[in-house]
Amino acid sequence: MNKSGENLIKFYIELPSDCREIGQNIMNAVFQAGFMMDKSSEGSILFTGYSSSSDYLSKEVWSRLHNLLELNRSDIIKAGGYSLRRQHSKRTDWNEKWKSNFKSKKIGSNWIVIPAWEADKQNLVGSKKTKKGDRFPIILEPGVAFGSGHHPSTILVLTELGRLIKNPIKINSFLDAGCGSAVLSIAAAHLNIPRVKAVDVDELSIKNAERNIKLNRMEDRIELNKNDINRIDTQEEYDLIAANCLPQIHRDIMPRLTNLLTEEGRLLVGGILLQHLRKIGRNIEEHNLTIDWKLVRDGWWLLSCSRS
């Protein structure tokens, strides 16, 4: 968390207006706790996000933005190209303004996502209480580059997770593929799924996930690994897998996710915008999976899949 008066790094991405959804996808992946989007005087779209000024974090954020832009390079170049830049920014009141955007939020019929600073005021941090009213509390400290649990794709997966757990088929294992803040793993552990594994290749995500797992007293319930999905041992199998990722990542990890799914298992594929829906759907079917149903919220899609 940034202290009052601490310098920040301000990141800018400028994209052609035709690449608006690509830009939103990238910024949501890197600055899930919030970013700004404006039209420039030339008619292009200007995206702005903030990170700590620490050398390590600012370099990591820059690298993530650059890599995601390059993954979409062909589409962006066709539309006119992009610019990526950064500058130091002094925001003495940034912390309080940022906090004011994130309040507790009820999700589905099972969850309430609570920012760490609110949970602390309510004496929930470190508490052994497993429920707040009739809902499971998920305490998160998003930081400037991590999810608050409010993103539409996260809400879709959380809602579906709560619904699936009521099915007669017992879910004994859950894999959070690309765990980010670990919000989905924490939810799965609340539902008493015996084995919960959270995996992410990104060092920043792993550190944030570790912090959130501790806030929720789930250290003994969730196995957290810094690893590439494609390097997970194929001897492992999971009844339920959630992959709430970027479209390009779905394509790369789909073969391994299919191998990791039990015969009666279910795969939740999220983080999909309409422009990628058909292509990802074909990729899923090419791996002998059936899309049983589709859910959408604010333009983001979730595909619930099983073996054909």
UniProtKB/TrEMBL annotation:
What CDD domains does this protein's entry cite?
Answer: AdoMet_MTases (cd02440)
One of the GO biological process terms: methylation
- What's in the GO CC field? ribosome
The yes or no answer to whether the keyword rRNA processing is present is no
Top-rank taxon of the source lineage equals: Bacteria
Keyword Transferase carried by entry: yes
Keywords of the record? Coiled coil, Cytoplasm, Methyltransferase, Ribonucleoprotein, Ribosomal protein, S-adenosyl-L-methionine, Transferase
Coiled coil region boundaries: 201-235
Q: Give the family per the record.
A: Belongs to the methyltransferase superfamily. PrmA family.
The molecule here is called: Ribosomal protein L11 methyltransferase
